[in-house]
Write a structure and sequence with these properties.
About 15% of the residues are buried. The strands form 2 sheets. Strands 2-3-5 form a 3-stranded antiparallel sheet. A two-stranded antiparallel ribbon has the order 1-4. The protein starts with a helix and ends in an 8-residue tail after the last strand. The chain has 2 domains: about 30 residues; about 90 residues, 2-Layer Sandwich (Alpha-Beta Plaits). With about 150 residues, the protein is of the alpha+beta class. The structure holds iron/sulfur cluster (2 copies). One iron/sulfur cluster binds next to helix 2.
Length: about 150
């Protein structure tokens, strides 16, 4: 049971603590430039995600639109929920090359296993963060820009 002295102490410290909290609120109210919280979506144009942020899987292309995927299928086997399908074709020399690199963003959990498993460093994660859609079909993507080894 609360003693009389504790009761009066709480009656004094309670409002003091309340006033301290309100002073912080009022400080930011009158100095909005000091707010450190992300002002999303107002800052959309300048917003930078952290280096290790995982948006979606990408097949890395160079400035000429070439990739180095050998269509080995290791990433496909590493994916725990079949979000990747590596479709193979043959080039005019009869060599096995990448036909289509299919990726399903709607089932991908951004675990990164595919990126880590690729022996040639062909895959990465984008920093995209606005990827919601009302049309599920838009979440099925072809990641390679061209057939073959880019
Ligand atoms: S990030 Fe994970 S779930 Fe997504 S495609 Fe790669 S292995 Fe599959
Ligand atoms: S992305 Fe890498 S692991 Fe996946 S098929 Fe291409 S070379 Fe193989």
């Amino acid at each position: 049971m609360m003693t009389v002295s504790k009761y009066f102490t709480a009656a004094v410290t309670g409002p003091i603590s309340l006033l301290k909290g309100l002073s912080v609120t009022l400080k930011y109210f009158f100095n909005p430039k000091k707010i450190v919280t992300e002002q999303y979506p107002e800052n959309r144009a300048t917003l930078k995600m952290h280096e290790r942020f995982r948006g979606r899987v990408q097949l890395i292309h160079d400035e000429h639109g070439r990739h180095t995927c050998s269509a080995c299928g290791i990433c496909e086997r590493a994916c725990p929920n079949s979000s990747i399908n590596v479709l193979v074709t043959k080039n005019i020399a009869g060599k096995r090359v990448l036909g289509k690199y299919l990726y399903r963003l709607d089932t991908c959990t951004q675990c990164g296993f595919c990126v880590e498993s690729c022996p040639f460093g062909c895959l990465g994660m984008t920093h995209d963060f606005e990827m919601s859609s009302t049309d599920r079909q838009t979440l099925n993507m072809v990641l390679n820009k061209s057939e073959g080894p880019g």
